[in-house]
Design goal:
The protein is built from 2 helices and 6 strands; from the N terminus they run βββαβαββ. The chain is α+β, with helices and mostly antiparallel strands and 129 residues long.
Length: 129
């Protein structure tokens, strides 16, 4: 029997800007698509430094996970993409304020050449239901 797949769409997070879903629920997990710091009200990139951008990204992820019926506290894996790895300590401080429950999700942080819309950061999360 095939595992049911459910699409998640939160009005409190930016609408997808391409052929993808904000998140998919399958096999008891929520696979949240990478979020960049788009303001859900305007669809525009928030202006500011890495802390401002990381805060918006994590608020967007929080909204998507809430719509799916879970939270950051149930995160099992996160991947952070940074245009400049020198931003790691400041991003990490914002990240730590959002992921406060133990155990913390497993995480990878990767420097990339470029991100959509000129963003400095993108984060994707997998969470348990």
């Amino acid at each position: 029997m095939a595992t049911p797949i459910r699409v998640v769409l939160s009005q409190d997070a930016p609408a997808p800007v391409g052929p993808y879903s904000q998140a998919i629920i399958a096999g008891g997990l929520v696979f949240a698509a990478g979020q960049i710091p788009l303001d859900p009200a305007t669809g525009k990139l928030v202006e500011g430094d890495i802390e401002v951008q990381a805060e918006r990204v994590l608020q967007n992820i929080r909204a998507v996970l809430a719509e799916a019926g879970t939270s950051l506290a149930k995160g099992v894996k996160a991947t952070v993409f940074l245009v400049d790895l020198a931003d790691f300590p400041r991003m990490n401080a914002v990240y730590a304020r959002h992921f406060t429950s133990d155990p913390k999700p497993a995480r990878s942080t990767i420097q990339v050449a470029k991100l959509p819309a000129g963003s400095s950061i993108e984060i994707e999360v997998v969470a348990a239901l």
